Amino acid sequence: MLQNNLVIQVNGLEKQYQMGDNVVHALCAVTFTVQRGEFIALMGPSGSGKSTLMHLLGCLDTPTAGDYRLNGRLVSQLSQRERAVVRNREIGFVFQTFNLLPRLTALENVLLPLLYSGRISAGRARSQSEQALTRVGLTERIHHKPTEMSGGQRQRVAIARALVNDPALILADEPTGNLDSRTGETIMALLGELNDDDRTIILVTHDPDVAAAAERTLHMKDGQIT
What we know:
Layout: E1 6-19, E2 22-35, E3 39-43, H1 50-57, E4 65-70, E5 73-74, H2 80-90, E6 91-95, H3 106-117, H4 122-135, H5 151-163, E7 169-173, H6 181-196, E8 200-204, H7 208-211, E9 216-221, E10 224-225
Parallel strand pairs: 3-8, 3-9, 6-7, 7-8
Antiparallel strand pairs: 1-2, 1-4, 4-5, 9-10
Helix pairs in contact: 3-4, 3-5, 4-5, 5-6
């Protein structure tokens, strides 16, 4: 495996939390790699460490021990500001609950990451946001608010928002969890198309049918990959 093809390198990753007098070992010596363009499913029962691992991969938290390299950079050595820049520019997040701002339109929700980055003009940001919404099939819904959309449409807005900065890595946490099976299949087909465009996708799911869409499945139990 070529090192320059690795998006993620995790070596001996551990995460501990202090709960009163007790130490909770949320992750225990987790080691794995992810190549550019892979589609990975992460499965395991509640409390197995999936969410903790996703938080670390998304640069939302730092490990107690071990190394996490994203595109060759050791994340633990990045400052808080540098991690924020990585989250904005290199990682797209898709959540089970969509995490859209209800008072904003689809277009305005997708615009937000570009506005936070401050790298491009307002006109170009709007154009990129419209293109992202077109990519997920919502051209006619760009001025609708989340309350005026179905669950599947809201999740597509969330995917457009994840895409708008053209990240190489997409982290999807139960993206079909709040959707009916047919809508869930549509969302999974869309993620598959994004993976075909050479985007790396890591998806957390409890559903074996959803996990079957991935190229590789990592199973977690008691904070370890089994």
